[in-house]
Automatic annotation (TrEMBL):
One of its GO terms (cellular component) is plasma membrane. The chain crosses the membrane at residues 24-46, 406-427. Keywords: Membrane, Transmembrane, Transmembrane helix. InterPro entries: DUF445 (IPR007383). This is DUF445 domain-containing protein. Coiled coil: none annotated. It comes from Acetobacter oryzoeni. Pfam families: DUF445 (PF04286).
């Protein structure tokens, strides 16, 4: 049953193959007609036997034999000629499993070679291709939505208690290695180089000033009580208030003296901090003591609770922000994608890193890919129906194979005629 032209994707190929088959068969029929006519014409008295007529008959006979032989060879590739169970026919359907394995090995071993893959990768500007994808508004918006929408799902997979506990546990472990002291020392030295330690000192001074002012009454009472304890009730009553006033004024004056940025005390503070940093870096005992102190602080239950609170706040912030299309997370992700696209297009170092990474990954996976590709091709070919595989292959190469029939018929005719002429010249009438 022939498929409708609009429903058969191979309709044109079928029609072309049929025309070439009919033409090749017609040529064999022509040789057969010439042969019959070559014998019938002298018998009917239309022409007389002679050298040229005999050579024509010999060539036509050979043309028929050559055409039929090549027809048999071509048909035997795809099916049994005339349905007869002749050995070594229907070769392709019978050997489709072996054909699939051979085809898979050929494609994997001869097409996907390391040299060929490197050549193709060298011709592909992968960074620019990725940059074009990220620059496309539709692709970029889809990526932004996908990334932002995945954040709540990621948070859902991390149970609240487990996540907060994990954060609380992992921070001390990350900072608790043998290299903690040098790492902290380098961080502190960077802060000192940028005068950040003076900002910390200024903050502490402000806190002390505020504390003195807000607790002045309590401090005055405490000093007076200490004077009475040490000098007696009478001495405390007489000079306790005066001593308290002088102590508080002296403390305030000292804080004012420290406050200017160029004060000698601040310079001394800088020298002291640098000295402590040097000790942390060079003195193993000091570094170990410092590490244990940091670990003690991070492991304290109040700090652990603080990490958990940070996690809860972070989660609520993320969940609220992703619901807003114009939220901060979406904006950050979009900006990051835009910067990444620009780097992929113009940053030579990044482009080279991408290409090197892709080349290393592909070449590392190439043996595995070739093996799987060969297996895949073999499985696909093996799964084909024998009739279907014969039809598919014949539609693809059948047209070219008909030229074998053309050539066999014409070459047979020429060789047959030439052989007759040579034998006649050598042996005369005995050559018949």
């Amino acid at each position: 049953m022939t498929s409708h032209p609009h429903q058969d994707a191979d309709f044109a190929a079928r029609q072309t193959l049929r025309r070439y088959k009919n033409a090749a068969t017609g040529l064999v029929g022509l040789m057969a007609g010439v042969t019959v006519l070559g014998y019938a014409a002298p018998a009917a008295g239309w022409v007389r036997d002679g050298f040229w007529l005999e050579m024509l008959r010999a060539g036509a006979r050979a043309g028929v034999v050559g055409g039929l032989a090549d027809w048999f060879a071509v048909v035997a590739l795809f099916r049994r000629p005339m349905g007869l169970p002749i050995p070594h026919t229907a070769i392709l359907p019978a050997q489709k499993d072996r054909l699939g394995r051979a085809l898979g090995r050929f494609v994997a071993g001869q097409v996907f070679t390391q040299k060929e893959v490197e050549r193709v990768l060298g011709q592909v500007d992968l960074p620019a291709f990725l940059a074009d994808m990220l620059d496309d508004p539709g692709t970029r918006d889809a990526l932004v939505k996908s990334i932002t929408r995945s954040l709540p799902q990621m948070l859902d997979r991390l149970e609240d208690g487990r996540a907060s506990n994990a954060v609380a546990r992992i921070m001390p472990k990350l900072l608790g290695g043998s290299n903690l002291a040098p790492i902290i020392a380098r961080a502190l030295r960077s802060l000192v180089d940028d005068d950040k330690h003076q900002e910390v000192l200024s903050f502490l001074l402000e806190q002390i000033k505020d504390a003195l002012q807000s607790k002045e009454g309590a401090l005055r009472q405490m000093i007076e009580e200490r004077v009475r304890e040490q000098g007696g009730r009478l001495l405390g009553w007489a000079i306790g208030g005066s001593i308290a006033t002088k102590v508080l004024l002296a403390a305030a004056k000292e804080l004012e003296r420290i406050d200017p940025q160029n004060s000698s005390i601040r310079e001394g503070f800088t020298s002291w901090v640098r000295g402590q940093i040097d000790r942390i870096e060079t003195d193993p005992e000091k570094g170990k003591e410092f590490s244990q102190t940091i670990m003690g602080v991070l492991s304290h239950e109040s700090v652990v609770g603080w990490w958990g609170d940070i996690w809860q706040r972070f989660r609520r912030m993320v969940e609220a922000d992703v619901e807003d299309p114009e939220g901060r997370i979406a904006s950050v992700v979009q900006d990051a994608l835009e910067r990444m696209a620009a780097q992929m297009r113009y940053d030579q170092n990044m482009r080279q890193r991408i290409m090197d990474s892709v080349n290393r990954t592909v070449l590392k996976m190439l043996p595995f890919m070739r093996e799987r590709m060969a297996e895949f091709i073999a499985r696909v070919v093996s799964s084909w129906n024998a009739v279907e595989i014969a039809e598919k292959l014949e539609l693809r190469v059948g047209k070219d194979l008909q030229f074998i029939r053309f050539n066999g018929t014409l070459v047979g005719f020429g060789v047959g005629a030439l052989l007759f002429a040579v034998l006649r010249l050598l042996f005369g009438l005995n050559a018949q």
